[in-house]
Design a protein that fits this description.
This protein has about 450 residues and is mostly helical. It has 19 helices and no strands. α8 crosses α13. This is Mn2+/Fe2+ transporter.
């Protein structure tokens, strides 16, 4: 097992030798440079699910469901931390799916297939949302036309050097939108007492509007705590060269920063829903309804910034899903088929199927933008509900594999991590059964 780094050294994750003393500015720049995978992951996680679900929950139910948001963020942090620790610290250098395969040969097939299916479904609302944003912002064309343009743009730009420059521009738009949301949330003077009460309330209010309180709670769990989308982070930080226990402290700091960003963004959107949309009687049925919140306080500027940020964020997320989920699927395929892995090596991109999986996740979701298909908001709510169904399978496997001392040694789970994984499994199972009963009845 790798030795832990000297605690007196503050080195970049890619370095293991001491350097002369550095200025505070140099250390601060190194700290910023160490952040990256978490920010990329949180931008993908917050593409639309958190934005829509948090705004609906706030606009329809005030702060009554705030406890679901708090619980889901804790679940995501712990689950992704456990996944990351396993990836970095297992003695055989296994990927997550290879670790799952040690439990049962069913897992590589399930996780690989689940990644393709959920990648398609997640991108169905990412692409449709970006298309709706373009339609409303530019004032011409229709959603299906713009969805085709969004897909073509992603297909042309994905993997090219120009895309990195374009993505940075989109992140700036997303940051500007986020700043405006936070500004509007502050201007709305949130009720801190109501937020605190809702965070510890553990109650399900009476149904309001199209989306019942229970459905919104489950959709929030799916959007915020995630399931297969959590694989984005462990597979992402390998690109930064984090592969060993020595990188664990950098990974923890990076993930904590990302979760803090998620807390700020989710809370800002929720406050806007509760303090701006709810008092004005605005129910969230489309992107236009949420854009109204920024227009109320910031006028046309807020309206335009909101749509530019949404379009940039959703497009970036769609491309990210079309890049990362094929890696998960190929890993599952190579784990189940050793000969194929031997033929194409360790890099998923070397397998010809990677390109086809990527095209499937990027292109096929355009069918959900055909006229007559469910709207953007409905897709977000129900697809995030559906994502909860796979959570018990993942959390049960994770519970077993991260308690094996022969694989992780001193890095096995703490007792509270096991408690949370068990609680997460029970919650997801109960939710799935309750949804099935409600659907059948």
């Amino acid at each position: 097992m790798e030795n832990q780094p000297n605690s007196n050294l503050e080195l970049s994750p890619e370095t293991s030798t001491a350097f002369p003393a550095k200025s505070r500015l140099q250390r601060f720049k190194e700290l910023l440079a160490s952040f990256g995978p978490g920010v990329i992951a949180v931008l993908a996680w917050l593409g639309a699910g958190d934005l829509v679900d948090s705004s609906i929950a706030g606009a329809h139910y005030g702060y009554a469901l705030m406890w679901v948001l708090a619980l889901s963020l804790i679940i995501r942090y712990v689950i992704v931390s456990i996944m990351s620790r396993y990836t970095l610290c297992n003695v055989e250098g296994l990927t997550l799916i290879q670790g799952f395969s040690r439990l049962h040969k069913f897992y590589p097939y399930f996780l690989g297939g689940y990644a393709l299916i959920m990648g398609h479904l997640f991108n169905s609302y990412m692409i449709k949302g970006a298309a709706e944003g373009l339609t409303h912002l530019l004032g011409f064309g229709n959603v299906f036309m713009w969805a085709i343009i969004v897909v073509l743009a992603g297909f042309i730009l994905i993997g090219r050097s120009i895309y990195n420059t374009l993505e940075n521009g989109m992140k700036l738009l997303l940051a500007l939108k986020t700043f405006c949301l936070i500004l509007v949330a502050i201007m709305a003077t949130p009720d801190v007492g109501a937020i605190a009460k809702g965070t510890v309330g553990f109650s399900i209010p009476k149904d309001v509007g199209v989306y019942g309180a229970f459905l919104m709670a489950i959709s929030l769990v799916g959007a915020v705590s995630g399931s297969i989308a959590n694989f984005i982070y462990p597979y992402g930080f390998k690109e930064k060269g984090w592969t060993k226990p020595i990188h664990l402290k950098f990974q923890r700091r990076d993930l904590l920063f990302a979760i803090c960003v998620a807390i700020v963004l989710d809370l800002a959107v929720w406050v806007v829903g509760a303090e701006v949309l709810k008092p004005n009687g605005i129910r969230i049925t489309s992107l236009q309804d949420l854009a109204q919140a920024l227009a109320v306080h910031l006028g046309t500027f807020g309206f335009v910034v909101f749509y530019l940020g949404v379009i940039g964020g959703l497009f970036s997320s769609a491309v990210a899903f079309a890049t990362v989920f094929p890696k998960v699927a190929i890993d599952g395929l190579h784990t189940a088929n050793k000969e194929r892995k031997k033929k194409y090596g360790d890099k998923p991109q070397n397998d010809p199927l990677f390109k086809w999986f990527s095209m499937f996740i990027l292109i096929t979701p355009v069918i959900w933008s055909i006229p007559g298909m469910p709207g953007f908001v409905s897709l977000v709510v129900f697809i995030n509900i559906l994502s909860v169904v796979g959570l018990p399978v993942i959390s049960i496997g994770l519970l077993i594999m991260t308690n094996q001392k022969k694989s992780l040694g001193q890095y096995v789970n703490k007792w509270y991590e096991n408690v949370l994984l068990v609680a997460c499994t029970v919650l997801a199972l109960w939710s799935s059964i309750k949804l099935a009963i409600d659907f059948l009845s």
